UniProtKB/TrEMBL annotation:
<keyword id="KW-0808">Transferase</keyword>
<dbReference type="GO" id="GO:0016747">
    <property type="term" value="F:acyltransferase activity, transferring groups other than amino-acyl groups"/>
</dbReference>
<protein>
    <submittedName>
        <fullName>N-acetyltransferase</fullName>
    </submittedName>
</protein>
<dbReference type="InterPro" id="IPR016181">
    <property type="entry name" value="Acyl_CoA_acyltransferase"/>
</dbReference>
<dbReference type="InterPro" id="IPR051531">
    <property type="entry name" value="N-acetyltransferase"/>
</dbReference>
<dbReference type="InterPro" id="IPR000182">
    <property type="entry name" value="GNAT_dom"/>
</dbReference>
<feature type="domain" description="N-acetyltransferase">
    <location>
        <begin position="11"/>
        <end position="173"/>
    </location>
</feature>
<dbReference type="Pfam" id="PF13302">
    <property type="entry name" value="Acetyltransf_3"/>
</dbReference>
């Protein structure tokens, strides 16, 4: 059952479902979109991604959600909140990923800002993070527009590659 989590002026964020597999493939199997992940995902990796989101819905009560453009009804990306490992613990991260034909239209910022508000108002977090690869300037700009500032850097090891990341954070008291 698809559950609407939140709405913005142009977007609906709802839970992902297995029926979204083909639409999620359009996102996760695009090498341009997935450059920060060192390449496109296989069908098996897409399914594992979906399974991880389903597990997070069940266990955390939140995860990345499908981002639906209201005017077209199309799934244009994913945005939401996930726990990410940082500094020896787990922090709530506002994450976002959009199909390239929807870049530079303000959708990522609109969705990320709504997720930040959801994290503060509904989930009652005192601060949220965005952990972004150092080469992903567009996502860094979204984090800044979302009121976040750089607080740290670290290196993630993923797919055999060392990937420098920048840690962005915003606290409830900052907004």
């Amino acid at each position: 059952m698809r559950e609407v989590i939140l709405e913005t002026e142009r977007l609906v964020l709802r839970t992902l479902e297995q029926d979204d597999f083909e639409e999620v493939c359009k996102l996760l199997q695009d090498p341009v979109v997935m450059y920060a992940y060192e390449g496109a995902f296989s069908d098996q990796e897409v399914q594992a991604w979906l399974d991880k989101m389903f597990w997070r819905y069940e266990n955390d009560g939140f995860a990345l959600w499908a981002v639906i453009e209201k005017s077209s009804g199309e799934l244009i990306g994913q945005c939401g909140i996930t726990y990410q490992e940082y500094n020896g613990g787990w922090v709530p991260e506002v994450g976002y990923l959009f199909r390239k034909e929807f870049w530079h239209k303000g959708f990522a910022t609109e969705a990320a800002m709504a997720c930040k508000e959801y994290a503060f108002q509904v989930l009652n977090f005192d601060e949220v993070y965005s952990i972004i690869r150092d080469s992903n300037v567009a996502s860094q700009n979204v984090a800044r527009r979302n009121g976040m500032t750089e607080v740290d850097t670290f290196v993630k090891h993923y797919r055999g590659v060392e990937m420098p990341h920048i840690i962005f954070r915003v606290s409830r008291k900052d907004i």
